[in-house]
Amino acid sequence: MSIHYKPGKEPHPREHRLIFKNIDRADWDNGIDCYLRDGGYAMLQKAIGMEKAAITGEVKASGLRGRGGAGFPTGVKWGFISPTNTKPVYLICNADESEPGTFKDRYILHQDPHQLIEGMAIAALAVGAKVAYIYIREEFPHAATICEKAIEEARQRGFLGKNILGKEGFDLEIFVHRGAGAYICGEETGLIESLEGKRPYPRIKPPYFPAALGLYMCPTIVNNVESLCHVVHILRMGGAEYAKLGKPNNTGTRILCVSGDVQKPGYYEIQVGHLTMGEVINDLCGGLKPGRTLKAIIPGGSSSKILKAGETYKIKRGAEVVEMGLEELPMDFDTMAAAGTMAGSGGVIIMDDSRDIAWVLNNLNTFYAHESCGQCTPCREGSLWMKKISDRIVAGQASPEDVTTLESVAYQIDGKTICAFGEACSWPTEAIISKFRDELTSHTRPELADTPKNPVTEKAMASL
Amino acid sequence: MARRPLVKNFTKGACCGHPSFHIEPLGIFPDPMSEPTVAPAATDAKPSVEMVNVQVDGVWMKFPKGMRMIKALEEAAKVIPHYCYHPKLSSPGNCRMCLVEMGMPSRPAPGQSEPEKDEHGFAKIQWIPRPAISCANTISEGMGIRTASTMVEEVRKGVMEFLLINHPLDCPICDQAGECRLQEFSVGFGRGQSRFQDEKVHKPKNQDIGARIVLDDERCIMCSRCVRFSSEIADEDVLGFTERGSQTVLTTHPGQRLDHNYSLNTVDICPVGALTSKDFRFQMRVWFLKETPSVCTGCARGCNTEIGSREGVIYRQTPRQNDDVNSTWMCDQGRLDFHWVNSDRRLIDPMLKDGAHHRTTTWPQAVSAVADKLRGLRGDQIAIIGSGRMTNEELFMLKKLAAALKTESLDIVPRTGAADNYLVSADRNPNTAGAGLIFCDRPGSTLATIRQKVASGEIKAVIAWRENLLEQAGFTVEELSQLEVLVAAHVMANAMAELAHVVLPTAAWSEKRGSMINATGRLQRLNKASEPPGNARDDWEVLRDLTQALTGTNGLYLVEDVFKSMATEIPELGGLSLGKIGEAGLPLLPSSEVIPLLHREADRKTRGIIVG
Predict the structure, then answer these.
(1) Which residue, of B342, B362, B387, is where some domain finishes?
(2) Which residue of A has its CA nearest to B101?
(3) Which residue of A has its CA nearest to B224?
(4) pLDDT > 60? residue B23
């Protein structure tokens, strides 16, 4: 059966669409009839005939790594539920897509919610959850309405509710829960706290690993929207077959959200590691804007470390180590890690030579200062301090020492916080300063070095 | 950088000052400066507790399995600075001040069955590059902890710097100054210099959040101790944070106030000057306060306290940790019940009634006046009514006086109220149990009979000690007016003293040394924080002088002598002395009373929620 897409929305020939198969399809809506016509919920039917462990086994065999940002193997995560557990198990779909540069989950929620619901039902069956939640960020009100409608449709058709598809004891209710507009709710334990009706203060680990002490102190699995959708395709193809997509240890497809200075920004589903950074820019995205040269790339959402044009990286290829330039890097988890950054959430931000790196730094610092939850000291105090220093760098009110202080503040946060927000806010600063120190310093004024900027201090000094 | 030894804990923070910590270490701790050695196995460990080996700053030690890292380090006499951690509250791990370097035993190399060992036979430690909070992590076999490495020093410097950048430097007018963790750890672990050049975040100040509490949000370091105390201990979930990031502010929930009867404990545990007590703020710099360990006499719980006084004036009373009595808490009502000590309504001179008015007199004249008035009466014409607020020593002397007067009408005035579900006892007398032990009777049981005999005229003389009989005891002005002799020994001017023929000014609980027995049968000691005002005297001395005036016997010069004498007569006190009671008190009488707050604390400890 050939699939037709809306004019101008056709996938690029180098894409490999699994998850986004139905995105921008002609004659497609997000209703259940459409999904069923296309063979929808057949994999749930298949899962019902399988042992729970066998489903998890397929996901493990597929090598699927979480698409939310951390890239943790999904099947392994499911396996963390203790076999002797007697408490209820919860499944949570993390639809708090809030990493700047990332915009893949919203398309699934808007255009293909049943794919997600089917994936969640299979996952719930595998981990033994009878209640699941879709935690949707506040900024997706439409998606929440769509998901609620889709859940109701699925329930009408017997894909949700009691004794699903006639399987005795397989009950599942899915609830949509809307966030209130905080980035930190994307952190899984912050999300859980929020779901419990509290401030989304991330929990300390240990002891609060969600698989042991999650929602309401019960075992909880939190998966990203895209990750859960992959489960449907893993069951369809079989774990081993799915694992042939992509590269070893970097299997399957993933959706790249490309933004910034390219001709055709947008979403592209590719086999992991099959395209290089240069191919993403030049083939998928139609290249840089005319007359521009590449300056830098943030490869996996705003918290991933920046990669600078002209850098070279030592990357393992098989047994040998190869030196590669930025545009030669294949887009996969392991290569990005080897290049000192991360594949993260798939948000690729391309910057050309028109961009002022001090402005970029300040933009990121401003975002993180605004989003720090404020629970633990280094991030609460450090994120705003970083913003204040970078404000001055952009305004030409900083001294070269301020750049050094800024870098030191970032390292004072990095690794000292309760959750990964500490790294999320400090890594961009660390990387930008280490790679663009000269450009940042060019914004500064050495004569400001000994000038007190604190107005209170200034007043005090003046009165002496 | 040299570290000053921060061994003594904050009196106000009452955080890890449990006496058992110092006297019951788990093992012998060698000089930390020496080369790595192996500590001998703990000898006092109960056999049922599984012990694990942990290397602390290069020295292998044994600790009970599952012990919280911060507790183990405390037992190893390591100073771990912290703000949010409190042993009686859950550990949120938010301040990041207690971060330490942690390592786990290395695994065998590929192809090997055994990991590489150190010279003591333990697997070599694989140090983790990321620091770990010691407040919420537990120790495990073969673990290594470094508390003074470069990494740890850098981390502490960083956290201190962060905590200070937005903190107002208003120490000169801050009540917390002198007992502020921010000041203390700044000196001990800070950078010494600020790199912050921007404008600080401004937040609400001088917030009236409760009847007895003022909040300065700019000073708050968001440790959440007060939030957790209110919800976990006081069951009044009234505090929380709003806004986020650096703008986070502590506040009360809409429509709520921090008004519960335990609210002032939040001021004690606030590591900075964010929460201050309306009663104490701006009254006195804390470093001028002399702190005297004492016991609250507001009810039979006998919460252990510290009285803060300067030059004879009491400025505050704070709870002192005693895990068998009050944990680290006390109620606001008991805590603030001291202002009368400083009051100008105190009785300061002995007085004799001369016609319709009292005139001041000297103690010898007052004592002989009482003796003269009583000498003509038979024992059954005299009653002595004491108080459950008197010490054991005073009650014992009261009994001696009764014997000298040959009267059997001797009792105390019961005083009751509603118990709460925390610490407050229904018995509002602090020493009912002492009265029971010394009088060998059920305290208060004969009071009605005495009153009847006073009303009928059978009793012609009443000595009322530390009780205004017109109040709790229910005597009427008419009944007391018809007495031939009414002697009132009290601390405050009152309506009954107006009727008395002789008025004897005595000492408040904070002005004397002595012992009491609380509702759970625990013998505890009061210590003298200040002198009685004017010519007021310690009660036991007045009682001794009265007895002497009647019998001529002697031999008691110190309150210690009274206790000694008491110990020879009362078997339960055999072998004890006032000194032996110690600051933590001693269990003395059997009791089945359960202290609700301690019961729940024990449960939380069992479940591992708190370190305890």
Answers:
(1) B342
(2) A416
(3) A375
(4) no
The whole-angstrom separation of Cα A420 and Cα A424 is 6
DSSP-based three-state secondary structure for B38: strand
B97–A377 CB contact, under 8 Å: yes
Task: Give the ipTM of the model, two decimals please.
Answer: 0.93
- Which residues of chain A are within 8 Å of residue B201 when distances are taken between CB atoms? 384
* Model confidence band, residue B47 (pLDDT cutoffs 50, 70, 90): low
Q: How far is CA B564 from CA A342, B388, B401, B560, in A?
A: 77, 21, 17, 6
* pLDDT of residue B39 exceeding 60: no
Q: Which of A353, A358, A350 lies closest to A406 in space, CA to CA?
A: A358
pLDDT for position A460: 61
Stretch B325-346: mean pLDDT? 97
pLDDT-derived band of residue A415, with 50, 70 and 90 as boundaries? very high
Q: Cβ contact (<8 Å) for B162 and A384?
A: no
Is residue B273 located within the same domain as residue B309? Answer: yes
Chain B contact probe: residue of A394, A407, A416 with most B CBs at under 10 A: A416
CB contact under 8 A, A182 and B244: yes
Are A321 and A379 in a shared domain? no
> Distance between CA atoms of A102 and B564, rounded to whole angstroms?
81
**Would you call B513 helix, strand, or coil by DSSP?**
coil
Distance of CA B229 to the CA centre of its chain: 17
Instruction: Looking at the structure, tell me whether residues A237 and A268 fall in a common domain.
Output: no
Cβ contacts (< 8 Å) between B231 and chain A: which residues? none
What is the chain B residue with the closest CA to A449? Answer: B197
Nearest residue on chain A to B83, alpha-carbon basis: A377
Which of A185, A208, A375 is the mutation pick for testing B, counting most B CBs within 10 A? A375
Q: B461 and B557 in one domain? A: yes
Give residue B552's domain range: 351-596
- Residue where one domain finishes, among candidates A352, A384, A411: A352
**In angstroms, what is the C-alpha Rg of chain B?**
29
Closest CB to B166 among A381, A389, A453? A381
Q: Is residue A71 part of a domain?
A: yes
CATH of the domain at B511: 3.40.50.740
| Contact indicator for A218, A33 with CB cutoff of 8 Å | no
Task: Judge if the upstream peptide bond of residue A206 is cis by omega within 30 degrees of 0.
Answer: yes
The residue among A97, A54, A448, A157 whose CA lies nearest residue A302 is A97
Is B468 in the same domain as B567?
A: yes
CATH of the domain at A266: 3.10.20.600
| Domain total of chain B | 3
CA distance B325 to chain A (A): 31
Q: Which residues contact A180 (CB under 8 A, 6 or more apart)?
A: A138, A194
Closest chain B CA to residue A372: B245
CA distance A325 to A307: 10
Contact A385 B248 (CB under 8 A): no
| Range(s) of the domain holding residue A189 | 32-244
Nearest CB to A206 within list B97, B137, B247: B137
Helix axes B150-165, A377-394, angle to 10 degrees: 70
B417 vs A280: CA distance, rounded Å: 78
A373, B245 in Cβ contact below 8 A?
yes
Q: Do residues B143 and B176 both lie within one domain?
A: no
Q: What is the pTM of this model?
A: 0.91
Residue B576 lies in a domain: yes
Cα angle, residue A436 at apex, residues A272 and A266 outer, rounded to 5°: 35
Total domains in chain A come to: 3
Structure tokens at B119: 């010279």
Asked if the structure places residue A10 within a domain, the reply is no
Tell me what pLDDT residue B6 has.
36
Question: Which CATH number does the domain housing residue B106 bear?
Answer: 3.10.20
* Cis peptide preceding A207, ω within 30 of 0: yes
